[in-house]
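Students often ask why we bother encoding 3D structure as a string. The short answer is that it lets us treat folding as translation between two languages. Here is a chain of 279 residues written in the first language.
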Amino acid sequence: MKICENACFPCTSIANSCAGPQRLVTRYIYGSIFLLTTVLAWMVRDYTHTLLSKLDSLKGCEGGHDCLGSEGVLRLSLGCFAFFFVMYLTTVGTKKIHDPRDSWHTGWWPIKSLMWIALMVVPFFVPSAFIRLYGEVARFGAGIFLTIQLLSVIHFTYWWNEDWLSEKKARHCRIPMVVVTASSFSAALSGIVLMYIWFSPKVSCGLNIFFITLTLVMIQIMTSISLHSKVNAGLMTSGLLALYIVFLCWSAIMRCNKESIFLSASLHYGCVFPSFHRK
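And here it is in the second language, the structure alphabet:
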């Protein structure tokens, strides 16, 4: 019991989510739904080509793995967007706890689970022409989403840092803060090194090298700003943000050439940064 009381972030978060306000539990559930959709998209992209090729709505791909994977992900993305957009439309403007829409937001999970499952399945029967149109529009939506996500991550890291540095928790959180900071920087720098090795095997992959180097420079600048006396944000915030931007860079160049991940010598094509071009 004493250990759980002294634990800083993980234990406190779990305790609050289980026994705390219902709204906090709701946030975790919605986050889990989004995470589950992301995992499903990854599985559909890489492991369901045979099944997807049998769908009439995907006959236009003619069995092409890249086409099937891309369309599968877009269809799940459309379903995810539809789910959260429906939730937005049905709860926007809710200000009172006793408003029926608030109970819909924080409860009714069996019905919302069925709705989510249905919205994950229905898009696979939508014509490819509409999915391609959605994909073009989604490019701009993805940029907006990443901006909001970045602001949320910044807010979260600063809140986490301030929470651990508070008078109530500073004494107990000293060692965990060092561990989290060291782990974040170690993982971020390891990611940078691996990206140089796996995604930049040739000088011709100049665009990849540019963005990896830019990510490294951004980490250095961000860390310097965090340590400035006028900011004094500490190393943990910059470490967590470094880990986040390395993840973004990694995700962006992941599809450069899959062969280069395992066998750099077999790379026969020029690397193309996938955020700007996709075949």
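Translate back mentally: The longest helix spans residues 128-165. Keep this in mind for the problem set.
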